[in-house]
Design a protein that fits this description.
Structural class: alpha/beta
Low-confidence stretches: 53-58, 137-142
Oligomer: single chain
Helix content: 25-40%
Number of strands: 19
CATH architecture of the largest domain: 4-Layer Sandwich
Number of domains: 2
CATH class of the largest domain: Alpha Beta
Length: 438
């Protein structure tokens, strides 16, 4: 069942703009007539003409609402100077109410254009259906039609203009939840490497579990790729790297490693390079973003180490790639474990806990329980030390008194970090990143 109706009155002919009240009245009448018992939410997009005083968004439409009390309580109007701004405002309202099934009523000429906006601003979480709104200029009226016009493919120039409009609007939005904050390790020399771990503040993602500097988009989340791209642009600007030379691991929760400059695997949880100016990144939202730096050979790497990747040795696989590809000496490699879920919070079923107990009994707390507490950081560190990484070249603040404030427990700090364990399936993502300075 349709949960929301979006009426696009954004680009009506000039002679109809002054009669918008009557036009909306006709449309609402049709919606009310064909709606189920439970009336949907109704959102109206209008163009806010420059130079006009902005009145209350619903005030000038009150006359159109007479007799539609069931809809009046569920109607909102978004007036803006661009389609991107109006549609993004409506998206926020949809997300506030967790609405996903939307009918779009719009002029036939706007359908292909609107689909491009929707493709960029929404993800596969949402379902859209379209109904044509036939504008009859002579009688100054509207009628909803089931007529489906033949799809037209917009030119690449038209699509580029839409993308530019969306980008400019997102860049204009204020940062949420405070300033953008980057955590850095004193172990990695900053005269050779640029690196850091992000927190959740300073971006534009507004959905509570994703706010505000979410750095990952998927078909299962409400944050579209364009929002993540804007968050990344702001991060790059603050950190000083080029977002166009940014490479994130393609998470598979395994131990494959990508060598920059060689054939890229379909999926990999580690990535290494010796190229200057290329930023490598690994995500984390409980899993460990691990950074690697060799100041002697001037090579670096990043890895995503969840419990499965930890058991499969993804961190040591990344080290081995640096050794084999760039001639690194394992004793020169520096490793920093970023924010991740700690043994204070993280539990696994007993069968999985056995694997960590085999690495070292200290990696498991309450081993005899059905769901023991697991220390994936300790397990990662032990595996690295057994592989030849010097203990003093591993930074994991959870077991030292250095108070470097890098390896926070993500689940324990909702103000600073995202956590899948804490927030559920619609969780945000922070990253660890590193590059070699030019």
């Amino acid at each position: 069942m349709v949960e929301a109706v979006l009426i696009d009155l954004f680009s009506l002919p000039a002679n109809l703009q002054d009669n918008i009240q009557g036009l909306l009245h006709n449309t609402l009448e049709a919606i009310e007539k064909f709606s189920a018992v439970h009336a949907p939410y109704v959102y109206v997009m209008c163009c806010q003409r420059q130079g006009s005083e902005r009145k209350g968004e619903q005030e000038f439409l009150l006359a159109a609402l007479r007799g539609f009390q069931s809809l009046r309580r569920r109607l909102e109007v978004a007036c803006a100077q661009t389609t991107a701004a109006a549609l993004y405002t409506i998206k926020q309202r949809l997300d506030e109410k967790d609405l996903s099934i939307i009918k779009v009523i719009l002029p036939t000429s706007r359908k292909d254009l609107m689909k491009v906006y929707i493709d960029h601003l929404f993800t596969a979480v949402y379902q859209f259906e379209f109904e044509d709104l036939q504008v009859v200029s002579d009688s100054e009226s509207l009628q909803i039609s089931e007529y489906q016009h033949e799809e037209q493919i917009l030119s690449s120039q038209d699509v580029a203009l839409i993308q530019n409009e969306i980008q400019m609007y997102l860049e204009s939005l204020p940062s949420l939840k405070g300033e953008l904050t980057i955590l850095r390790s004193s172990l990695i020399p900053d005269d050779i490497f640029l690196h850091g771990f992000t927190t959740r503040t300073g971006g534009i993602s507004y959905i509570p579990t994703l706010s505000s500097c979410n750095l990952f988009s998927s078909s299962k989340r409400r944050d579209p790729q364009v929002v993540v791209k804007e968050n990344l642009r702001r991060l790059a600007n603050a950190a000083g790297f080029n977002p166009e030379a940014f490479h994130r691991v393609k998470v598979d929760h395994a131990n494959a490693v990508c060598i920059m400059g060689k054939t890229e695997p379909d999926n990999y949880d580690g990535i290494v390079t010796d190229q200057k100016g290329v930023t490598l990144a690994a995500p984390g939202a409980d899993c460990i973003p691990v950074l690697f730096a060799d100041p002697v050979r001037r090579a670096c790497g990043a890895a995503h180490s969840g419990w499965k990747g930890t058991l499969l040795g993804v961190s040591m696989a990344t080290v081995n790639a640096m050794v084999s590809e760039y001639g690194c000496n394992v004793k020169d490699i520096l490793v920093v474990l970023g924010p991740s879920v700690g043994p204070c919070c993280y539990k696994l079923p007993h069968e999985s806990a056995k694997e960590f107990h085999r690495i070292d009994p200290k990696c498991v707390r309450l081993f005899d329980s059905a769901s023991p507490y697991i220390d994936i950081r300790r397990a990662t560190r032990i595996i690295l030390e057994r592989g030849g990484i010097l203990p003093e070249n591993i930074q994991d603040d959870s077991i030292t008194d250095q108070n470097k404030n890098i390896t926070f427990c993500t689940a324990c700090h909702p103000d600073k970090f995202y956590s899948h364990f804490r927030d559920g399936s619609n969780f945000g993502t922070q990253i660890g990143f590193i590059s070699i300075k030019g």
